[in-house]
Design brief:
homodimer, eight-stranded mixed β-sheet, alpha/beta, 36 helices, eight-stranded parallel barrel
């Protein structure tokens, strides 16, 4: 059976997106629902693929089917294609399965030529209207279909406008427009070497070919590469009878959302422009009215439209984004599609639609993106202060909302300065025309990024999202000029404070207060997460080093602490001197004395954690970083000594000299200790359990502190579940040695208190060899916790600190890597190790508790993978917990969907 | 059926080593061959295990079987155990499957008591002999069986000796010896709390128990742990009729090897002492005669002995180490076992025995250890110069040959000094009483290590072998005293030159010339390796960076170059400035100009290599190390600048100031470049193909140089097979990108020359992720080469530079790791990755060429593993190639044996 290449709208439906594209399926669905859709048809995506398969020729039969469909449209409209008496005009639009920038846009008014334009003038009794449509068509056709540079048409038009009084399009007379048409045609012939095609069928043939051609245009290909959209989907072509919103006061055009896309409120939201075509709205020449205005101007049309929007939303069970045109008092629907919305709106709409019994709880959970939940919990501008800023005229403009979050800081105009000031602890916003890999070192230190050029997939946007920093991109209304930028009349010089909101794209002069979000106030989000909790199988824990973090985590739904880094406690100001004494101790006794001082402090830390996490497990990791991290830096000390030597040279008195020499000696002693601890590759050096093995007193003190704290709070009635985690194990014998040293200490403390607590000993799986030999390691581990940061570093042989700025982000940008593997778990390599570790670990110990505490524990795709390989929990930073709850539910629901 | 615990010698044979131990099996075999063995029997290793299994009780029936066997011995000797008239005396000896230091030695003369000693005196008509035997027995029994400290017996004996004129044992009269016996018994009773057991059966029971007990003695357990000998083998106990070599001029005792254990010459080699017991030889009181002397003194016995040695060697088809005693003109054989030998002798004996048709070529190949071949090719002392040194009295003594190789250097007495001088480039020998982990930093920088204490498993020996450095350990005749040592009258002070030969244990004063070995002169070794080549499946390639290395490698049998590090060429003095210009170039054009200068130089390097390797493949690795390695160090520059600033302060003239300031500016510019390239973990930073991707001009130049060189030499008629290796690939897209850049360059060069060469593009597998995704990587790689150094570093998360001194060797010492994984491939982790990579790689590309170029390519166990997982070749440093050839053959033969 020969393939069918062309479908009338009446032959399609919403489930045929693959074949008809999103726009075609939407038009078909509306047509079949009896809504007023201008007659038309769709050429399929398969035709597009066949076109490429046969060396850019229309497949056999396609053109005949197109002509047949056109005949049917002529029948329904009563007009004829190319008929000077009653000409049928059409628009030609591309329409892939998903909307895609870089694809051919729309050619309007196709079918006009020197004959039909006269017919149109006569029919509409408006010569100016007809020639205006004609000149628009020639320019659009030349530019979009034939690739002539747009400004060349603009120049001609501008020259004519110059001769008018008002200098506006609307000031051009019909006669002038006729001359414009003639000049456009001459331009066309010069550029193309052929006259402008007067034959409407020839116009149509070329336009269809151009739509097909745009599928493989550079921007479209880049876009698909970026979003991993297959190249063999193809695009459909929609041919739709023209309707005109610019035929007078009883005409108009508009767009609308069925709910407010900013807040999610259930209220029709949109804009309307009387006596205009869609183009005019986009061009920004006239300001549209709110949609409600339509109720005043054309109450019947408005009633009809509202009814249609309600029907469509019910029909699609989803908030719709609609385009419509009113032609001489008749409403035409031109498009319906799922509407884009803010994070806040996404949550509210999903929750509301459940209440309205439009969708199920499962669907609601699946409709909100993890990233949107995360975005709702990012620091944001204080609403009041932002209102003040707007009131006081500080809003400079709006760019693209390229990476969410809000930040204030001094504007700086190059990466080196951003790095220098950032490292001094200053808040800066890096402002660049656009960014390149040479700017990454500055982006790393900036609080936010603002660019004049570039879209959602520009370098700045990708890197900023990668770094989790707010970014406003493509703020084209700014003019950056050396070390300043202007926005309208305002000049911002280097060092001036600015603020950017990456969620809205707004740019402000001056600082704006930011606030931490409160889950308690997000009622709909709480509801959504409660539903997510019903569906998910994966637990969500949090990484927290202090009771205050644990408290936040618990409020955000954490079901345990997956990682407490004990060394963070060591860095606190009052403790560091003791820790340094412990490290520099020359005898075991001196070391023990320092550890004895640390014991009660650590015990106090743990007591606080255990109290907050009453009833839930708390995993505490024993000391991990290399000891030299607790000491002054080598170079810092060298500089100090050099400075002291200068001072010694200048010393005037013997006493002064003696004092300086004593200082130098003391610093040199410290320098030599630091030097002895220096490592070429500290990440792969003396740290983790290697430290615990060489200095067993340190983990011994920590385990004593953990179990004394646990017994103390248990005596208060707290339900405590300590889990001791031994880091950086690569060989089972390391774990065995440490556990055999430490568990007796735990038992002794409990025996002294006559208590038996529920506890575990386990290990991080962060060294590839540990994953590879997880069966052996599980013999001594009651739990595994994947440290995917280090596991990724070692599996890739990439030091994140060194690589991210130097080549890793560039790898992502150039698609050498699909994602930054430190953000999105690399399933092919690191994931393979994890899968092995899970299988091997469970083969030895079926009840092994396995989770993840690396940063990936907060990433959507990574959580899905953790669900798939059967982990018990993911553990992420507290503010990542709500998103993780949602992602875990989506992973579970996705599986159910697949099972059906 | 009840187990049989006791075997008469006539009931055993040489294949029963598991049950009877090595000694027992040897005695049984000799007995059954009709050789003169003193009657006796063996209690089995199973009895030992049963003893431990039942809480240290003899298993049921064992004692009865022992008594029955004793009865048979009585029948054959005509003597009776405990019979004062004609007493049977026995020796009791332990005998495990393999000889093992730390096990109970021998108790001689068991069966003597106050009655039987009188009978012995009467029978031998020599009262002094009898009481001398009795006092020896009591002391031996007290010391070995009952654990009384030996010196306590010595003190008593010494007191009696003091009263004689000659002060020697032999000066003691029979009466004095009777008093010694009485005093010994009193000592025994004081120490043990019980009288000395007069009952010979009680003596026997206790001695057997003591042998069993020694199996679990600390030293024996440590030894087994070290050599990975299972603890459940158990030891046998041999009970042998005493024969006496000290019964007059027609008696004597000796040891002999069937061939010279030093040279391998086929000549009887040994020592003989008339009228003496074995003990006396060991004690060194009298100097033994060469075995040939026996021919003069007892020609018939000598003839008989020579015949026996020949029979035994033929019988065992192996060089034998024999013990014998002549008692009143009758020859008794006491032991036969495989003789230990030097590396040189091992090779010669194996080759000679094939010529003698004693063994097959396969057996010859299996009998020589890889390490012995390696040892034969280590630098050694020039024979002539060593003879001169001996002649001139420079030999200071001999310790344990703990790690082979020869070295001369200044004696230093602490690790810090050794490190400091070593880093200055001075040759030093570290001399320590013994070493500990605190000394490793000095050992790393020393040319050799000499210790006064410690055996083959001491810290010094293990670490030195680990580092591949010569070590003489346990040189107890030295006296180390602060910063000097004395050897006899000679005093060696810090800084004096000494020389050590780790293969022989010799220590010399003064320097001795070392020479590189020549395979051409090692005729037997060449023969052995030729046989090995017949059997092995694995090819042996070499790592070589220069034509001169490739030449050596080829002479040593290399079948290809597995790794040429191109960057080594960059480090040469005349090239480094160009390389630095290339790195610091601020424009692409400047960089290209430097690369253009490097091109002909690299091309010349490659031409030399290709010519030497005519007909064989040459793998060339593209630039690998971080670029900052080619620049001065950061701290070095800092210090230079600080010094210049001091000088600037002291500048007297304006010209001088200007000059200094210019110098400072220039250095500061360089410093800032170096600073920009600094990395926290350079091993995981910007290196390998990451460099090639960021600076594609560099590998482009290298590939052009490779193919221009290849075409040039091909034009000369050389058969050239270049293989381009892309390093540090972690993701297939890196390899894809590089290959797609570089292969066209290669093709273009060949097209220009109108040549089509046989070439390959491939990659190192050195990043864990590459092994995990080898199926993907094989799509773009025609070969894999395992870089097991980096693969081990990343799989373990251990930086070798940092870890080896700080904790890794300590891990090995404490058995947290079985071996240093940088020497012996870690099969459980790294090996698992390799196995995966081989399977995945071959699944994509069945003809994928896979080899290994890490250091492990020269290690015996690692080579065996490479054979097992089906690699095509191992590549090691040139001098490792012969050992690798042997190891590869052994791996193949081992498999054949298993298959049978």
């Amino acid at each position: 059976m020969a393939k069918k290449w062309v479908y009338l709208f009446s032959e399609g439906n919403k489930d045929m997106r693959d074949l008809l594209g999103g726009k075609g399926a939407g038009l078909a669905e509306m047509e079949n629902a009896g809504l007023p859709v201008p007659p038309g048809f769709t050429i399929t995506t398969e035709a597009c693929n066949a076109y490429y398969a046969s060396g850019k020729r229309f497949p056999d039969g396609m053109w005949d089917e197109t002509l047949a469909a056109l005949k049917e449209v002529e029948r329904r409209t009563g007009k004829q294609f190319g008929d000077p008496g009653n000409p049928l005009l059409v628009s030609v639009r591309s329409g892939a399965k998903m909307s895609m920038p870089g694809m051919m846009d729309t050619v309007l008014n196709l079918g006009l030529n020197d004959q039909t334009v006269a017919g149109l003038a006569k029919l509409t009794n408006n010569e100016r209207f007809a020639y205006d449509a004609y000149r628009r068509f020639i320019a659009m056709f030349g530019r979009i279909v034939m690739d002539i540079e747009g400004p060349k048409f603009d120049q001609i038009l501008d020259a004519y406008k110059e001769r008018t009084v008002g200098k506006q399009d609307t000031d051009l007379t019909a006669d002038m427009l006729k001359q414009v048409v003639a000049d456009f045609k001459a331009l066309y012939e010069r550029e193309i070497g052929q006259p402008f095609p007067e034959d409407p069928y020839e116009q149509l043939r070329l336009a269809i070919g151009a739509v097909f051609g745009s599928w493989m245009g550079k921007r479209a290909v880049d876009y698909r590469n970026y979003y991993k959209i297959p190249h063999d989907l193809g695009t459909a072509v929609n041919i739709v009878t023209m309707v005109f919103g610019n035929m007078g006061g009883d005409s108009g055009t508009g767009v609308a959302f069925t709910r407010d896309p900013n807040t999610g409120e259930k209220t029709l939201y949109g804009e309307y422009l009387a006596n205009a075509q869609g183009e005019d709205v986009v061009a920004g020449i006239r300001t549209p009215e709110p949609i409600a205005q339509l109720a005043q101007e054309m109450p019947e049309i408005y009633r009809q439209f509202v009814e249609i929007t309600q029907r469509l939303e019910k029909h699609y069970r989803e908030m719709q984004d609609l385009e419509f045109t009113v032609e001489r008092g008749k409403l035409w629907m031109l498009q319906t599609r799922t509407g884009k919305r803010t994070a806040k709106a996404a949550v509210k709409i999903a929750v509301d639609m459940v209440a309205e019994e439009l969708i199920s709880k499962q669907e609601a959970v699946l409709r909100v993106e993890t990233g949107q939940v995360y975005q709702l919990l990012l620091p944001r501008f204080d609403e009041k202060d932002k209102e003040r800023a707007v009131r006081e005229g500080q809003l400079l403009g709006t760019g693209l909302n390229a990476s969410p979050g809000a930040a204030s800081g001094a504007a700086v105009f190059d990466a080196d300065t951003a790095q220098a000031l950032g490292q001094e602890g200053k808040a800066v916003i890096l402002v660049r025309p656009e960014t390149s890999p040479d700017d990454v070192h500055g982006m790393l230190e900036a609080k936010g990024i603002l660019t004049q050029h570039g879209g959602a997939t520009s370098h700045a946007a990708v890197v900023a999202r990668g770094l989790g920093k707010p970014c406003v991109a493509g703020a084209e209304q700014l003019r950056i000029d050396g070390r300043q930028f202007t926005a309208g009349a305002v000049v911002i010089r280097e060092g001036d404070m600015i603020s950017i909101d990456g969620a809205t794209g707004e740019i402000f002069r001056g600082p704006i207060k930011t606030v931490a979000p409160e889950l308690g106030r997000e009622v709909e989000l709480q509801q959504l997460l409660a539903w997510a909790d019903e569906f998910r199988r994966l637990q969500c824990w949090a990484n927290a080093d202090y009771p205050r973090d644990a408290k936040v985590a618990r409020e955000l739904g954490a079901q345990g602490i997956g990682l407490t880094r004990t060394e963070h406690m060591f860095f606190e100001e009052d403790r560091l001197p003791i820790v340094q004494r412990m490290i520099l101790a020359e005898t075991d006794a001196a070391r023990q004395a320092a550890l004895d001082e640390l014991l009660p402090i650590q015990r106090g830390d743990f007591e606080g954690l255990f109290r907050v996490m009453d009833g839930l497990p708390v995993i505490i990791r024993l000391i991990d970083p290399p000891l030299h991290e607790f000491l002054p830096g080598y170079e810092e000390l060298q500089e100090e000594i050099a400075a002291l030597k200068f001072e010694l040279r200048d010393a005037k008195t013997l006493a002064e000299m003696t004092q300086k020499m004593e200082q130098i000696r003391e610093r040199e002693r410290l320098l030599s200790s630091v030097a002895a601890m220096r490592e070429a590759n500290p990440m792969l050096g003396l740290r983790g359990c290697r430290l615990g093995i060489l200095f067993p007193q340190i983990p011994a003190m920590q385990v004593r502190a953990i179990f004394e704290a646990a017994c103390n709070v248990a005596a208060e009635g707290v339900d405590v579940h300590p889990e001791v985690m031994i880091p950086l194990v690569g060989h089972v014998s390391e774990l065995k040695r440490q556990r055999e040293l430490l568990e007796p200490i735990a038992k002794k403390v409990m025996a002294q208190r006559h208590m038996q607590l529920d506890y575990k000993f386990g290990t991080m799986i962060e060294v590839p060899r540990a994953a590879l030999t997880a069966d052996e390691i599980a013999e001594y581990a009651q739990f595994f916790s994947f440290g995917t940061n280090d596991l990724t570093q070692m599996a890739f042989g990439i030091s994140r600190d060194d690589a991210e700025g130097k080549f890793l982000l560039r790898y992502v940008e150039e698609k050498l890597l699909p994602d930054n593997p430190f953000q999105v778990l690399d399933r092919g390599g690191v994931g393979k190790l994890m899968r092995m570790a899970v299988e091997l670990g469970h083969s030895t110990r079926p009840d092994l508790e396995i989770g993840i505490c690396g940063e990936h524990g907060g990433d959507h795709s990574s959580i899905q993978f953790c669900h798939q390989i059967g982990l018990k929990y993911v553990s992420a930073s507290p503010y990542r917990v709500p998103g993780a709850r949602l992602a875990a539910a989506q992973a579970a629901l996705g599986e159910t969907t697949r099972d059906r």
